[in-house]
């Protein structure tokens, strides 16, 4: 976790998705998401911070994560859906 600047367990959101032996998680306040191989217990990917539109009246966080066969969908607190396509 230190390699990816995840300082403590509560940096990760409580929601996660498991698909094909991969656990997808997000770091709500850091605006990043990652993938953990549950067989090897290795983090295989952590994104760069997701570009969001900041608003003066609120602090943007990631709120929800969904995974399809080849895409990761992340909803932020401004109701913007961010879509990432997995590279094989």
TrEMBL record:
State the name under which the record lists this protein.
Answer: Uncharacterized protein
**Which species expresses this protein natively?**
Capnocytophaga leadbetteri
């Amino acid at each position: 976790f230190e390699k990816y600047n995840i300082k403590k367990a509560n940096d990760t959101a409580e929601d996660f998705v498991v698909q094909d032996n991969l656990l997808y998680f997000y770091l709500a306040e850091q605006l990043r998401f990652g993938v953990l191989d549950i067989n090897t217990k290795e983090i295989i990917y952590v994104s760069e911070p997701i570009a969001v539109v900041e608003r003066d009246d609120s602090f943007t966080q990631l709120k929800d994560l969904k995974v399809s066969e080849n895409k990761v969908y992340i909803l932020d607190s401004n109701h913007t859906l961010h879509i990432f396509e997995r590279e094989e």
